[in-house]
Amino acid sequence: MARYAHITGWGVAIPEKVVTNHDLARKVDTSDEWIRTRTGIRERRIAAEGEYPSVLGTRAALEALHMARLHPREVQLVIVASSSPDYPFFPATACLVQDALGAPQAAAFDIMAACTGFIYALGIAASFIRGGQYDNAVVIGTENLSRIVDWEDRNTCVLFGDAAGAFVLQASEEPGGVLATVMHSDGSGAEMLYLPAGGARLPASEETVAKRLHYVRMNGREVFRFATRVMAKATQEVVEKAGLTLEDVTLIIPHQANRRIIEAAARGLKLPLERFVINLDRYGNTSTASIPLATYEAAQQKRLRPGDLVVFVGFGAGLTWGAALVKWTGPVRPSLPRKRPLAWRLYRRLARLRAWGRRLRRWLGV
Ligand code: UT7
User: Fold this and answer.
1) Phi, psi angle pair for 128, to nearest 5°
2) 17, 36, 173, 295: which sits with the fewest CB atoms below 10 Å from its CB?
């Protein structure tokens, strides 16, 4: 019997603090007018102290699990995509999320494909589920980009924002869910968008700090040209791979980097802009979180309904790009109380206590 990977829950975590273009114009040589006309962004959210990617990711995952009616204890796989993880190399942010959720059965790992990360993670999770390895997975895109942008560099600091988004995927024999994915890369463009220091190539030193090499560096114009080339192509490719046409697709949810990039994709596909979800005006570019965040809003606004075909398409550093074609399932049971049940909250408290217990046992060597 064929297995399908359905998206049965989705959630977000949005920091409270809003930073407008006007706020930025007081810090660097820019203006609201420049940012709006060149990017479409009006404001972005900035994570508070302690709202690490793992913290935002856990919050988004809990909302998604609650919607999917899947208890954290049943979760089998956690994949986190992040361009600004809690720690630079290890442990994986996914392990921190696994612990915070209280998901003792789950395998957990991160993937690094920059802003395309969520598409890659979705493709990997869907393959595991379709292949029978797992019955469910939580896929998370989560960012603290505000911690890795140079707030003195007007070329980059106006673009990014913090947030997290998550999907729950569950196996079913009912046709639907993630129908096709395409993933691409071109490492010859690695230095078009990168964070130069802090890795094995250029470890942290007084010099790297003095030269501000621990912040994002970007050739905006080149990334823009690359993005306008690949967005329409990847969309077309994933639709064809599923044996469908663009006419069959209700909605396209693109990576939210720049309104002009999305407009170029719409022109390339000869589709009206109304078929695209755009919310970057309020959040800026939230990298791996941008697609699940836009999806969340589209579902809330009923622009996305059960049975609809939707394309997720993204691009990012690497260079990487990719797309996923999904038959939208919708929540397993629609009328759900907003508040998570008390039993869930008690369970998480208990899971935290158990984690302390494991730490204590390791410390005592028993
Ligand atoms: O997830 C992937 C992440 N990255 C992206 O998606 C970035 C893709 N690229 C872009 O979105 C656009 O290239 C930008 C928004 C970054 C820049 O827009 P542009 O229309 O390509 O501008 P530009 O790079 O051609 O720069 C035009 C001018 C430059 O001045 P000069 O050299 O012409 O005198 C920049 O220095 O605009 C200047 N500029 C700014 N001016 C005011 C750059 N940033 C700013 C700013 N405010 N914030």
Assistant:
1) -60, -40
2) 173
- Tell how far the Cα of 221 is from the centroid of ligand 1, in angstroms: 7
∠ Cα 292 10 337 (to 5°): 145
- pLDDT tens, 330-343? 887 655 556 677 88
Q: Please tell me if the CB atom of residue 39 comes closer than 6 angstroms to any atom of ligand 1.
A: yes
How is domain 4-335 classified at the CATH fold level? Peroxisomal Thiolase; Chain A, domain 1 (3.40.47)
Residue nearest to atom 35 of ligand 1 (CA): 155
Distance between the two ends of the chain, CA-based, in angstroms?
A: 46
CB neighbours of residue 47 within 10 Å: 26
pLDDT digits (tens, 9 = 90+) for 79-95: 999 999 999 999 999 99
- Tokens linked to 123: 């493709």
Judged by phi (left if over 0) then psi (alpha if -120 to 50, else beta), residue 157 lies in alpha
Indicate if ligand 1 lies below 6 Å from the C-beta of 194: no
H-helix or E-strand containing 12? strand 4-13
CA distance 114 to 143: 10
229: buried, middle or exposed (CB in 10 Å: 19+, 13-18, 0-12)? middle
For atom 41 of ligand 1, the residue with the nearest CA is 30
